[in-house]
Amino acid sequence: NLSETIRASAERHERRTASNVMLALEALPGQLPLSIRSCAYRVVQEGLTNAFRHADARGQLVSARVVGEYIEISVSDSGPGFVGASREDGHVGQGLAGLRDRVEALGGTFYCVSRPEGGAMLVTRLPLPPDASRAEPPHG
Prior knowledge:
With 140 residues, the chain is an alpha+beta fold. It is 36% helix and 26% strand. The radius of gyration is 14 Å and the shape is globular.
């Protein structure tokens, strides 16, 4: 299920980098197409990699929830944000461009922002399939 997919991506990052990732997973649909789960895994993986590289792994947080007809996944950190360039317009560097393409190919949206309290946040919204209304509580 999606909670397990997100958790697996975060745990793999923790093992690879010896850093800590906080998870805030609300009740998420249990059964989703592989394309959605795979994209969610990559969003978390790429977001955490960027937080590790550019924010020294400070305050890495992955959250996921259902918002209307979408699954919203955000990856944030407590680093310097997007120093020297605003990403409020959703512009992303080349490293995230492929991820944005993948998200948009599924009918989703992807953007990056510097948070007012400090740090950066990547936000992805992936559309829920019509038959995915049943949510399961997060495990663990």
